[in-house]
Amino acid sequence: MIVTRSHVITGKATLKEMASYLLKRAFDIVAASMLLLVLLPILLLIAFLIRHDSAGSPLFIQQRVGSRRRVRNGKVVWEVRNFPCFKFRTMYTNADQKLHQEHVKKFVRGELEAGEQGADTAKFKLDRDPRITRIGHILRRTSLDELPQLLNVLRGEMSLIGPRPVPTYEVAEYDTWHFLRLAALPGISGLWQVKGRSQVSFEEMVELDVEYVRQQSLLFDIKIMLLTVLVMINGSGAR
After folding, report:
1. How far apart are CA 195 and CA 156, in angstroms?
2. What is the mean pLDDT of the segment spanning 88-106?
3. Closest Cα to residue 171, out of 148, 228, 163, 214?
4. Cα separation of 139 and 159, whole Å?
5. Do residues 184 and 164 touch, judged by C-beta distance below 8 A?
6. pLDDT (tens digit per residue) in 12-65
7. What pTM did the predictor assign?
8. Distance of CA 174 to the CA centre of its chain
9. How many other C-beta atoms can be found within 10 angstroms of the C-beta atom of residue 94?
10. How confident is the model at residue 115, as a pLDDT?
């Protein structure tokens, strides 16, 4: 692979690679469409509860960093790009994001004290923050705040399974090799969510994402989906 801060070249655009990508994309579209239809009453109920709980839009839209697949001169190129990532709003509309930003920067740099390490530590700390609404605590604990990202899947900005979509201020702290994790569509769930979770460091989290990039396939995605359901049932879903 050739890695830069703007793109990752993963190799030749073979027929097998293209078929695998198209199969995964087709599965994403069909599955996301079905999930949106089945979950529509729940989505509307959540939106109503958010509006009833606090003033503001039920949706929270934040610029996240992902990538898109291109073929250039017979090579597969993943171009790094920003996209609007949809989530249900879990904090009050005037909440200051600086605390989370500084914590994430320290996590990436490895500057956190013992006991603060873990790929999801920043989010766990915010779960006890008074800026989170009452319904927001429930949504984060059950991972239901991620459901609007099904729209990102249909728009081609995300996949059901893939590396975590990260905010721009996190990517600003990356070393070049960290961009390897962007050689795939970002996912609603992924390998790091079902392996290690808050027990892994930032470097270990990136290694799990890179492991997914190297092994990604539809069967691997289905396996991670099943593991994700088990994680959510056990109460340790994404926050």
Report:
1. 26
2. 80
3. 163
4. 21
5. no
6. 889 999 999 999 999 999 999 999 999 999 999 999 999 999 999 999 999 999
7. 0.86
8. 17
9. 8
10. 44
